[in-house]
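[audit] Reproducing an earlier prediction to check determinism. Same input, same settings, fresh worker. If the tokens differ from the archived copy the diff job will pick it up downstream; this log only records the rerun itself.
[audit] input (189 residues):
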Amino acid sequence: MPTNNHFPGQKEGEQIKYLVRKHWIIYVRILLFLIATFLVPLIGFFWLEFGFDFTANTKKVITLLFLIYLEILTLITFIRWLEEELDLIIVTNERVISIDQVTFMHRTISETELVQIQDVKHIAKGVMSNVLGFGSLQIQTAADKIAFIIHDIPEPYKMARKIMDVRDECKEKLMARHGGHHQPIGKTV
């Protein structure tokens, strides 16, 4: 899925190889949340509105409270969607950039050079993950902890393999440039 798009902080000559986005299952989860949190209050609203003989002012207050609830529910649903939609891993010919939308106003952006990647691991847990082909992707660098993780991506095994292939290609170019000796990025021979 190579693309010619650009992103902020892109280096000169750096090309995007892959954009790792979330699987469509996240939309189903958000929709189920919306339905579950909307149906029960809707039934309660109609029960109060039509099941009891309230005064006109009481019915207006009930309607107003229900509309306020719907506004808050819409805002919460939008924030949940935004937090999932903005999670992204960008794989270029030089590095991997992870954009993690932690909460509504909290985003973490991390990056590592391709040659620093030690391992890329895919995880598919459960029947639904295996049947629908989604799971998690973990990218490990030389550091002790996992550098990047993104959940609920389509075909995590294939993406792990693609990232390792891009990493291997980058290492080969680096070794060819330095006469077959691996040099750390930023060092000259």
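[audit] rerun output stored. Observation attached for the diff report: The longest strand covers residues 95-103.
[audit] end
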